[in-house]
Amino acid sequence: AAADIDTIFSKWSGTATPGCAVGIEQGPERFSKAYGMADLEHDVANSPATIFEAGSVSKQFTAAAVLLLAQDGLLRLDDDIRKHLPEMPDYGARITINELLTHTSGIRDWGVLSDIEGWPRTTRAMTQPDVLALVSRQRALNHAPRAEFSYTNSGYNLLVMIVERVSKERFQQFSHRRIFAPLGMTSTSWRDDFRHVVKGRAIAYAKSGETYRQQMPFEDAIGNGGLLTTTGDLLLWNRALSDGKLGTFVTAEFERQGTLADGRRIPYARGLRVENRHGIKEVSHAGATAAYRAWLARFPAQSLSIAVLCNASDVGPSAANLGYLVADRLLPPDQNRAPKPRPLANIAQRAGQFVSERTGMPLTLKPANGRLLTGDGTSLDPVDRDRLKLGGEMITFRGSDRFEIARNDGNIETYARAPTGAESPPDTYIGRYTSDELEALYFIERGDKGLVLRLDRRPELAFPLHFIYRDAFLYESRAGQTGGIIRFVRNAQGEVTGFTIGVNERARAVRFNRSAQKP
């Protein structure tokens, strides 16, 4: 009922907040409504016709362009990307177009790399050539191709470049000719020039204290995001995919899930996630760019499509949480009853600090009232003597000093008990550090409360370091939250010769070398 939908969006339905638009199509039934303001400065309300930016929902349109060219016989999904992008380094392992599509290439994410350089997303007007220059300077991958899933925006920017080189058209022109115009998506385009005036576009806002501030994607890098569209056009798109309007090959390949080298299938397909929600097939993707939030989903067996677009960052990391509240009102109830949990064995012995073998990031487990909690207080739900659930992910202990987490992205991440040992004296680490891969010079210095990581000529970018285990420190981001991990590297004589920076899953072990020049 419309009243139920109104309740979901009630927090963003006034004249003092940005908001959202929602579009729903279930069989012949359609619903569209908008909430909140598109422009707080000029008192313009959102409407179903308002244009928003779709964040990573855009990736499926990039994937469609690539699949159309493959359908035309102009490229192959197993092409080595260096066939089309000779600027990319030879990593000693072939990277294919399909590995870009499925986020299994191992290529580092340019947004995180730019952040390490001191320019997080929205603070510098990055272009496609800027992205190529930054990514092509990387001398290492996060992992070997197809060894893991690691989400990277870089792959989708590179795909846009491949489409342009193969089609000999600008990506906007190709998309309009082959996708937008044939499907009747008259309000959809790419933000390939952020200075371009777009009639009817909502301004994006981030919450700052009790007020909202503009936070727009002032960049010209596209393919990873950058789609300007409406909920109505997104419903047209979903209908076209359900009806196979883009061709037999595209229809067959779009939802083909990626496969890792060990044969494991991952949820990610080509710009889409294919999953089961309470036993119901779901094809979806969430998105966030600057303060725009988005979610688009299809539930094919129920003939249900839902599109949510928002210009308020405080709706969440994406608009998926709102979208699922809508979906839960329209889908059949979950009939699966979880089995009664059995208590975890040896709780005290399984507490402590553990370290990811992939990233080096720590995860602390502590006992409390017969349960295990994470370091931030999140309770782990017991399943049986050796297994717990962390949200929707399964933790399986292999003895008391090791466990695996089956991630929602299809990866299996192994954690081992952290090495013991005291922090080395500060002088061990103090110095000047440079990178061949990034345009950044960092200093390790003494601060008021310990070591500090400081970016050269940027006094506002000085991050306290917090010791976690031998030669490893977490550093704080601008918001006082964990920004990433610094791990110092030693030579055979035990001398510190550099460090690596890792930030979440998207950029691991970016190398900085210690300079002989005194800071």
What does this structure look like?
The chain is α+β, with helices and mostly antiparallel strands and 519 residues long. Helix content is 19%, strand content 31%. It has helices spanning 2-8, 59-71, 97-101, 110-116, 128-136, 153-167, 171-183, 231-242, 248-254, 320-330; strands at 20-26, 29-35, 37-39, 44-45, 52-53, 189-190, 205-208, 211-214, 227-229, 273-277, 280-289, 292-299, 304-310, 352-356, 362-368, 371-374, 381-384, 387-390, 393-397, 402-406, 412-417, 431-434, 441-447, 450-455, 462-469, 472-476, 482-490, 496-503, 507-514. The strands form 6 sheets. Strands 16-15-14-21-20-19-18-17 form an 8-stranded antiparallel sheet, with no helix packed on it. It has an 8-stranded antiparallel beta barrel with strand order 22-23-24-25-26-27-28-29. Strands 2-1-13-12-11-10 form a 6-stranded antiparallel sheet, sandwiched between helices. Strand 3 and strand 4 form a beta hairpin. Helix 2 (59-71) crosses helix 7 (171-183) and helix 2 crosses helix 9. The chain is globular and about 70 Å long. The model has no long low-confidence stretch (mean pLDDT 94).
Summarize the structure.
By secondary structure, the chain is an alpha+beta fold.
Keywords:
single chain; 519 residues; eight-stranded antiparallel β-sheet; eight-stranded antiparallel beta barrel; 10 helices; 29 strands
